[in-house]
Amino acid sequence: RLEETWFKKVFSGKFRFVKARIIVVDHVSKIIRLSLQSHILHSVVPEKSTMPPVGTVIENAKVIRLDNGIGALIALPSTLGHAMEIDDEDGDDETEKVSKKKKSVFTDLQRNEVYAKASRVKCCYVHISKAMDETNDEDSKKKKKKGNDTFRTPETLFAKHFGLNTTIPKLRILNTSHWMDNIASCATAESIVSAAVLSHADISPGVTYKSVPVISTLTNGSLLVQLGIGVKGIVPTHHLFDKAHMAEAANAAGGFGKNARMDKFKVGNLIDVRCLTVSLQDKKCVLTTKKTLLSSDLGHGEPILDYASIVEGKIATGFISKVDKSGIFVTFYNNVYGRVSARRLAEELGVEDPTVNYKLG
User: Fold this and answer.
1) What's the confidence (pLDDT) of residue 4?
2) Of the candidates 312, 323, 223, 234, which has an alpha carbon nearest to the alpha carbon of residue 269?
3) How many domains does one find in the chain?
4) Quick one: 276 and 304 in the same domain?
5) Which of 193, 226, 245 is the last residue in one of the domains?
């Protein structure tokens, strides 16, 4: 276990003067920032991060620095990895000379046992906005409104729960791309730690996401829901209800359909949704709340996600995505669709005009 003032035992005596690399010169504040990181001294960009993968949940980490009103630096348990190392491959004489020269820059400081131990500690930083979930406690709101002395601001609560040497029960790694500092970004708020989705890469067509909050109603009647922190999905109007006429009524000026939508899809309500398509490039996710699609796999096996999974005789549920005189187009998941011709509809169901009998959605 490292002492809080371990650096005082290192940067003294023969280690009072050390070699460092300038990384920032702030002409306004007249501050020069330096780095002792081995990969910075060696001018080497790491091929991969030595931090735990994004999404990893880590238990029992410890706060080692508190920046009031900003965030906290947290040390990960010592069992998670080692310090970043620079490996010099064998080469010709000139390369070996350069390698020896690079190693000599950091050798003396690394020989100090206390510094070597400290350099192996992996750290992550949590911003105050991702540290705790906002409270909806009515008493707290009343205290704030009345100016009660017992009311605590987010900054005060943060300082209370993230004091020096405080053990953090759980945190989640969010970003490991800060290779210069070799410090990951993390979150400790329960909603983020337990979230099923951190980015659009975590979303898959055909997957149902339960109890996601409605965050906005668009002017065209569509919904925006929050799948994860900063990850939103859209539910088009014709995917709110099973029946097309209900979706049309939901956009009407008044009546049952409008009231039904307002009651069920009010901002803040938690609803179940299912992913129809997701685009990583556009960061767009289209969802459905149709009851039939949410429960369509019961007794029918896996949903249709690609054309390779389609076999003759398979029963699957989809939605009508296009209607014209030639027939109807039925779409499943991941933009996989099929067509039923007007002739087949007439022969099997007696449908003379598809545009009369079927509607979009």
Assistant:
1) 61
2) 223
3) 3
4) no
5) 193
Reading the block at residue 5, the tokens are 């003032």
What's the CA gap between 182 and 85, in Å, rounded? Answer: 12
148 HSE (CA, 13 A, CB side): 11
* 63 alpha-carbon distance from chain centroid: 23
pLDDT of 199: 84
User: How many Å apart are CA 320 and CA 323, to the nearest integer?
Assistant: 7
Answering whether pTM is above 0.85, one says no
| pLDDT score of 250 | 55
Mean pLDDT of the chain, nearest integer: 79
Residue 151 DSSP label: -
Q: Does residue 1 belong to any structural domain of this protein?
A: no
Low-confidence ranges of the chain (pLDDT < 50): 81-107, 137, 139-140, 253, 255-256
Contacts of residues 85-94 at CB distance under 8 Å and 24 or more positions apart, as own/partner, are: 85/38, 86/38, 86/39, 86/42, 86/44
What is the reported pLDDT for 152? 72
d(Cα 126, Cα 188) in Å, to the nearest integer?
Answer: 7
Pick the last residue of a domain from 139, 168, 193: 193
Question: Are 117 and 206 within one domain?
Answer: no
- Inter-CA distances, 115 with 15, 279, 333, Å: 10, 46, 55
Q: Which of 59, 57, 56, 51 is nearest to 167 (CA)?
A: 59
Provide the residue range defining the domain that includes 330.
296-361
Q: Which residues contact 252 (CB under 8 A, 6 or more apart)?
A: 258
